[in-house]
Design a protein that fits this description.
496 residues, alpha/beta, Rossmann fold, five-stranded parallel sheet, 10 strands, 50% helix, elongated
C-alpha cells in the first residue's frame, strides 16, 4: 500500500499562501464549535522518524486556542504504566468534552515499534488490534472525534533528513541509534504500518496517510482532513437519529419470556453463627496469605460488588479485607458521577481506579450502574445502555488479557428481607444514616430494577469475567461464600 503512494506531490509557495490562511480561520472556528457542542477531539500523529510530526503538530496548533489543547508525547511506558493494562495510560488522558488532545505517537506504538523490535508476540499483537478498535469505537460512540495521521516519507528521504540534522549542531542530538535502526529496518516497519492501517482503518476512526516529503503539501492535507472530520461530526449532530457506529440490538432479554436468573436463586441457604465464625477465621487467614502471593507474583485483583440496596455489600467487603494489608488494597465507593466525570466517557473514572500489578481494588458499585440505575432512571439514552453491554465486556476482556483477576458479585436478597433491613436501619441510631429516600424510591421500582439486573447478568457473565450470585438473605452465608470465591479464584490462577 505505501509503495503506491506518490511522494512527489508538492504545493507551490504561492498556492500555499493563497489557501492556508483561510483554512487556519476555519480551524479556529471549528475548535470553538467543538467546545460549544462539547465534542472531545483526539488527533493522532504517527509516522516515520524525521517525517515532521513535531512540525505538523506545531502548524496545526498555531491557529488554535492552546488553552483547549493538551499535547501528549508517547514514549515507552514508564514503570508505573507498565504495571497497568496496555490502554490504561491512554484512557486516563482522554480529553474532556469540548477539549482536544494531540498525541505525538499513541497506542499504535504497540503494533509498530513493539512489534518490529520483538517486544510482543503474534498473539499479543492480534489482541492489541482488537483492543485498539474497541477503544476507538467506544470513544466515538460517546461523541468523540478521532483523527489519525500517518506521515509517510521514503527510506531515501528519511536518510537524507537524518544526515542533514547530524550536520546541524543544534539538531544532531535528535538523531539516535534507534532512528538509524529504523532506517535500516525500513521495509520491516513498512509492513507493520501497512498491517496497522489495514486492521484499524475503520468508518469511525479512519487513517489518513500524509505524503510528507513536501511540508506545504502535508500541512494542507492535514488541515483539510481536520476540517472535513469536524464538519462531518457537527453535521451529524443535526441528525440525532443517526449514530456514528452500528446500532445495538433492539430486543431486550426476557421481553415476553417467563424466565429470570434471580428467581432461581435459593435464598434459604443459611449458616449458623458458630460455623460462620470458624470459617471466617480460616478464610481471612488464607486471604491474607494470598494477598502477599499476589504481590509477589505481580498479579492484580479487581473485585466488583453489586446488589440490592441493603444487600450486605459493605459488611461483606469489610470481612474480605479485615486481615489484609491496607497498603495493598483500595476500596472504591462509587456514587453518581461528578461534573468532571460527566465530561468524560462513563468508563473513564473506572479506568483511573484500576490497580497496578500486585495490588487489589474493590469496587463498591461499579460501571454496571450504566445498565442498571442509569437505565431504569433514564439517566442515559436507551441506545447508550444497550451499547454498554458490549463496551463493558470489551473492557473486562482487556483487563483480563492483561492478567487481572476479575471477580464480580451480585448480592441477592428478596423484597421481604430488604424491607426488614430498611426498617431495622431506621430504628437503629448508628445505622439510620444508611437509609435514604432514594432507597425507598428504588424499592418501588423493584420490578424494573430486577429486569435490568437479569439482563445484565445474562449479557455480561463471560468466560473471562463470570458473575457470582451470592445468596444474601443470610449475611453469614453470603460473607463466607464471597471469601471462598475470592480464595478459589486466586488459587486457580496461581496454580496455572
Amino acid at each position: 500500500m505505501l509503495d503506491k503512494i506518490d511522494l512527489k506531490k508538492k504545493v507551490s509557495k504561492e498556492d500555499a499562501k493563497r489557501v492556508i490562511p483561510e483554512m487556519e480561520i476555519r480551524l479556529s472556528q471549528l475548535q470553538r464549535k467543538a467546545k460549544e457542542q462539547g465534542i472531545p477531539v483526539m488527533i493522532i500523529f504517527e509516522g516515520w522518524e524525521a517525517a515532521g510530526k513535531g512540525t505538523m503538530i506545531n502548524k496545526l496548533m498555531l491557529p488554535l486556542d492552546p488553552r483547549g489543547i493538551k499535547v501528549h508525547l508517547t514514549a515507552d511506558p514508564n514503570e508505573e504504566q507498565a504495571l497497568r493494562p496496555f490502554l490504561w495510560r491512554f484512557w486516563v488522558n482522554t480529553p474532556a468534552k469540548g477539549r482536544m488532545a494531540i498525541l505525538d505517537r499513541s497506542w499504535y506504538r504497540r503494533v509498530l515499534q513493539d512489534r518490529v523490535e520483538g517486544r510482543i508476540d503474534d498473539a499479543t499483537r492480534n489482541l492489541s488490534y482488537d483492543e485498539i478498535r474497541f477503544f476507538e469505537r467506544q470513544l466515538v460512540a460517546d461523541g468523540a472525534v478521532i483523527i489519525k495521521f500517518f506521515l509517510h516519507i521514503s527510506k531515501e528521504e528519511q536518510k537524507k533528513r537524518f544526515q542533514g540534522m547530524e550536520k546541524n549542531p543544534s539538531l544532531a542530538w535528535r538523531v539516535t541509534k534507534a532512528d538509524w535502526a529504523q532506517n535500516k529496518k525500513y521495509k520491516k516497519y513498512a509492513l507493520a504500518v501497512e498491517e496497522m492501517v489495514e486492521r484499524t482503518d475503520t468508518v469511525f476512526a479512519p487513517w489518513t496517510v500524509v505524503e510528507a516529503s513536501d511540508e506545504r503539501f502535508a500541512t494542507i492535507k492535514i488541515f483539510q482532513t481536520f476540517i472535513h472530520a469536524m464538519e462531518d461530526r457537527l453535521a451529524s449532530m443535526e441528525r440525532p437519529n443517526l449514530e456514528p457506529v452500528e446500532h445495538e440490538r433492539s430486543d431486550s432479554y426476557l421481553d415476553g419470556l417467563n424466565a429470570s436468573v434471580l428467581d432461581r436463586v435459593d435464598l434459604s441457604l443459611h449458616l449458623s453463627k458458630p460455623k460462620y465464625k470458624a470459617q471466617k477465621k480460616k478464610h481471612q487467614k488464607r486471604i491474607w496469605e494470598l494477598e502477599h502471593e499476589l504481590y509477589r507474583r505481580r498479579i492484580p485483583l479487581v473485585i466488583v460488588y453489586e446488589g440490592w440496596d441493603a444487600g450486605g455489600k459493605g459488611g461483606n467487603i469489610r470481612r474480605v479485607v479485615q486481615n489484609m494489608d491496607p497498603r495493598g488494597y483500595e476500596v472504591v465507593p462509587v456514587a453518581a458521577p461528578n461534573d468532571v466525570e460527566k465530561a468524560h466517557h462513563y468508563l473513564w473514572r473506572f479506568w483511573r481506579a484500576m490497580p497496578k500489578s500486585g495490588h487489589v481494588t474493590i469496587f463498591d458499585r461499579s460501571w454496571y450502574g450504566r445498565v442498571m440505575v442509569e437505565r431504569v432512571e433514564g439517566f442515559c439514552k436507551e441506545l447508550e445502555w444497550r451499547r454498554a453491554y458490549r463496551e463493558i465486556n470489551e473492557m473486562e476482556e482487556h483487563l483480563t488479557n492483561f492478567g487481572i483477576i476479575l471477580i464480580k458479585f451480585w448480592m441477592q436478597i428478596d423484597q421481604d428481607e430488604q424491607l426488614r433491613r430498611f426498617q431495622e436501619r431506621e430504628k437503629t441510631p448508628h445505622k439510620s444514616w444508611k437509609i435514604t429516600e432514594e432507597d425507598w424510591r428504588n424499592r418501588e421500582k423493584w420490578p424494573d430494577h430486577k429486569k435490568a439486573v437479569d439482563e445484565m447478568l445474562y449479557r455480561t457473565s463471560t468466560t473471562y469475567a463470570p458473575w457470582t450470585v451470592v445468596e444474601s438473605n443470610c449475611k453469614y452465608y453470603a460473607r463466607v461464600k464471597a471469601m471462598r470465591t475470592v480464595i478459589d479464584r486466586i488459587e486457580e490462577r496461581i496454580a496455572d
